Amino acid sequence: MFAVLSLVAFVLTPTAIVRGQDEAADTSEAVGEDVADPYDRSQERTWTDRQGRQQKAKFSGVLSGNVLLKVGGRIQRIPLATLSDEDVDWIREVLRREDKLDQLPFAYREKKDTATMPATGTDTSPSDATTPAEESYDRNAERVWTDSNGKQVTGTYFSLFREDVQIKVTGSGVVRVPLANLSASDIDWVREYLRRNNQLNRLPLAYRLSPDDPAAMQDPEVVPQAGLRDERIWTDRKGNKARARFFSISGKDLKLTGRGFTTLPLAQLSRDDLIWLQDALKEEGRLHEMPLAYRDPPDESLSELELARHRRTGYLRKWTQYNGKSFVATYVRVSDGEVQLYDGSQQRGFPWYDLSDEDQEYVRARLEREIAGAFFPEKADIVLTTDEIDNGWRLWTDLDERQVKGRYVKRDHGLSVAVLETPDGEQGYIFDFLGEEDREYIDAETKRRIEAEKARREQLAAAARQEMENRRNSRPSSPFPTSRGMGPHGAATPPTMSEPRFPEPQFPEIVWVYSCMNCGAEFTEDDGVKAGDPCPRCNRQTPANRGGQQVASNGMTTPQAAGAQAAYNQGYQTGQLAGKVFLAVCGIVAIVFVIQKASGK
């Protein structure tokens, strides 16, 4: 029986296995043909904001609460709070698969589920009769703060410094926690507190909107402040991380400052950090500080070796002047109407009009990518009305001899852009592409505004000082009784012969006390003594001596001063007596010593 069963199993098993393998193969082929990975970040997908508007782009990463989307050859920064829940879930899953979930702010790292119980384990079912206490938005009220590691501290809100929340912990001072590392409830509390106190503009753009609030997607052309001076975590291509601040770019090296200085070659910087650095430098009009090979996002179609070779040679090009002379150099920047080029040994400036049309077109393309400004339109209304002239409008000319009318407003993006008020509203134009006369006008206007602001501040300070002086001179008289005309200890002071500034006060009756500087005796006018008279005590032995050498003090004194003088005289006499006693004792000791010596003892 056992042998028969074994034979049947041996015959049937291979058939089942083969059938199962064939079905699995068919299934895998079907999946491979029909189903693609929905979380492939290299594929373009449709993104939707909370108002339903859509656009197609590739996912590039997450930086400082903003999603980096690649549209064509340009990177857009979209706040996470403005994207739909489906897009946020997609980003969360992609970063989770790549083990980069820490790039998301803490409030977005977990999918919201209304059916999930709170972390505290409290029962929030409808049968629960108790309701949670209303959140207090008093900055002096203590609350529990939670970071991304689950660590909690109890403290009060102190301040917001850039993207860090400062929390005052009892007994531990003030601690700083990045917004990205706070829980969603903590971020909501900070947002609501700032909103109630009209300080919501202090919050970074990525945190001003709650993920549940409907809001329009921000204009992709408006790039929020990149925070070049903020401390952040930098990552190299090997995955090494360091918390530091941007300091400078020296050649092809990036210098960071934190606990000392750190130098990192730009070629070893991670792709996301390189894009972040390009964005931050462009925001401040300093992208020209980077070598030309690192100003554009890396070409994803090139391997590391091909990308390194392209960076070495791909940005050298042939330049031609109108006189036919040609040379090979690398573009650096446009400054003061000249194109700065580097030929490998030195940097030289060439006038704009001296370059060929092809070279000028190349420079325009570089300026459009590197500076957050525009060029003058080819056709514009340049007829100035009388009212416009009276309001400070003028004609502006660029290096291409194009003109536009407008009024100067300010310089922006690190002084790289000149903002003009035009018939179409305020427009930003590349400052270094303006004509020489216009650049000089802006420099003079800027200097005038600075001097006017300085004069205004000095005027306000002088007015404040005058106001303080007026208040000091117009103080009302005190309702309390004063001791005007009295000395520091309450004793009366002698009347002055100068003309009084105020009506003569009504003094109470004063008894003058005279003290002898010799014996310390005190007398009043009732004793028949006046200032300058001889001391009756020192001259009482010989009445004929009255008017002699010993006289009373001709000044007025207080009882305290007289007592001090008497104490001094008594001490002096006691000291004299002690000295005499000491001399007598010494004399007796000397006599005893001489007697003993004479007796031979």
List the helices and strands and how they pair.
Blueprint: H1 2-34, E1 45-48, E2 54-63, E3 66-71, E4 74-79, H2 85-97, E5 143-146, E6 152-161, E7 164-169, E8 173-178, H3 184-196, E9 232-235, E10 241-250, E11 253-258, E12 260-265, H4 271-283, H5 304-313, E13 317-320, E14 326-335, E15 338-342, E16 347-351, H6 357-370, H7 386-390, E17 394-397, E18 403-412, E19 417-422, E20 425-430, H8 436-473, E21 513-515, E22 522-524, H9 559-598
Antiparallel strand pairs: 1-2, 2-3, 3-4, 5-6, 6-7, 7-8, 9-10, 10-11, 11-12, 13-14, 14-15, 15-16, 17-18, 18-19, 19-20, 21-22
How would you characterize this protein structure?
This protein is of the alpha+beta class and 601 residues long. The protein is built from nine helices and 22 strands. The chain has a four-stranded antiparallel β-sheet with strand order 1-2-3-4, sandwiched between helices. The protein is elongated. The chain starts with a helix and ends with a helix.
